[in-house]
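Lab notebook, page 48
Experiment: co-folding of the full assembly
Goal: obtain a model of how the components sit together before planning crosslinking
Operator: M.T.
Materials (sequences as entered):
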Amino acid sequence: MKEKTIYEHLREKGLSRRDFMKLCGTIAGMMGLEFVPPVKALGKTLGPSPEEVVAQALKTRPKVPIIWLEFQDCAGCSEAISRSSSPLLSNLVLNDIAIEYHETLMAAAGFQAEKAKEECMKKYFGKYVLVVEGSPTLDDDGIYCTVAGKSNLDLLKEAAAGAAAVIATGNCACFGGIPAARPNPTRAVGVADLIKDKPVVNIPGCPAIPEVTTGTILHFLILGQLPETDQLKRPLPFYGHTVHDHCLRRPFYEAGKFAGSFDDEGARKGYCLYRLGCKGPTTYNACAGLKWERGLSYPVQSGHPCLGCSEPHFWDGGGFYQGQSTPIIRLDRGSTATLVGVGVAAGAALAGLNAVKKSRAKKDLRKDQSGAPGSEPGSKKEG
Amino acid sequence: MNWTNILNFSRGPLLHVAMIIFVAGLSFRLVRVLLLGWARDRAKNKGSKLWGVIVNYLKGLFVLPFIPWVRRTFRHNELTFIAGGLFHLSLFLVLVFGTAHILVWKSLWGFGWKGLPTPILAFFSAVGIISMIVLLINRLTHPVLKMLTKFPVWINWLVVFLPMITGFIMARHLWFRYEVIFSLHLISVSLLLIWIPFGRISHFLFYFFSKTIHGAQAGKRAVTP
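Observation: model returned without errors.
Model output:
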């Protein structure tokens, strides 16, 4: 029997054609698809419009099975997706695109769940998308995170072998995240450090913004490939700008108006949070644009500085409330005193050596003068 | 190696090593100067040493720079005097009243203060950069200066100019990604900190040292420094 397309699946569930087209428009907008709008404005058309591309894909393509693995994580990224306030999209991903295996969300458990995963991997070999949440660990062959008796390294390699693409969601899966924070006891790494032979895309964040995860999955579903990425493998439509770039407090930054503490006059007036440790200028994420809770707010808007959670090793980049311009390693009083001591001692030692040399030279000179009264007067100048 | 890691490295270990060399190196230099030997001052104390020091500072920092025509250095080369003066003023304002810099002082000393509005700082940092370029051109074209200038002087110019230009570009968000220009700024600052104890930029410390001594000597003799 021919596999049902996503459109057929949605129609069966009672979605009207009108709602379907609205959904396609939403998806296209969220993915940042835009084709030839200036040409369209002139009354000419060049190729299909974005929503038509989405509609065409949903009408013709079968569901994309997703296998969602969790390693060293808090399940926060799954929580974010399941409680995402854009139900249309998360429903689409959770129910209609079909997540075949997800340890936290699926009803099955134990051997049945593992069997279902194996069957899915076999049936859809080379077609499924592997989503990884949480960091794989390298130390002692990955025994610090095991599921069903298998180490996370084995699980990852096994699942990645048949995957069409790998999506790492959350900072842990992308760069090691909190488990990789110093001293990184389990030697946690990012997925892309281990999987080299498959296309990998990183969706960092703590948690990853659900619309970004779903958007990336939909991008693969609709266009058949992962989105264009930056050097850290983050999709450019979502990670092309810093939080600072689109920040609503940016005008205050430009004017030099900063909140000095969390409850001062500046904070009440909504001034820039740079002095309170905001990492917005170096953090690439879609927070300021997409926001959370259906565009309600995001950390900086709510009065908290950006932590830089979509950047590698954000946990080790100095304190969260320490200004970004400050040195990460502080020169404390004790070490400053030691350094001054070292400098002074070295200087004094050199001065002492010089003094000894000088007095010797003087002594020699005196000896020369007393020993050889007829010596040249010019020799006196030496020493 | 990505730029976020480079930034963490330059904000972390690199800056730390630079500060270590800076502190230990300057202490070393200061002790070396102090122990070069002191000529015994046999003059009788006719006035106040402290008063001499105060007058010397007030004149040197707040009076003479603003009535430069009374000084020979100005009459000999107005351009150097004005550009040099503006450079020092801008550097002082940006370093002391730039918000990002105030955070650095706060992290070192435990207290901060209010910064100047960004447009004013932008103006002065531009003035500082232009002065530096003017001074460079002057040095490159002036027949006497050209002969006097040796290799370390060019390094002095470069290690001061690089932090200024990268800082300006960073604060205005021009051309580069922020983490890239931020890393370059910190690398150039580290270079400056490492170079200071070995070069003549250490005058930022020795200036106050010699101002104090000269002021005290003049004050002791009850003459105007």
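Interpretation: Chain B touches chain A at residues 2-5, 7-8, 11-13, 15-16, 19-20, 23-32, 35-36, 99-101, 103-104, 106-108, 112, 115-119, 121, 178-179, 182 (CB under 8 Å).
Next step: discuss with group before ordering constructs.
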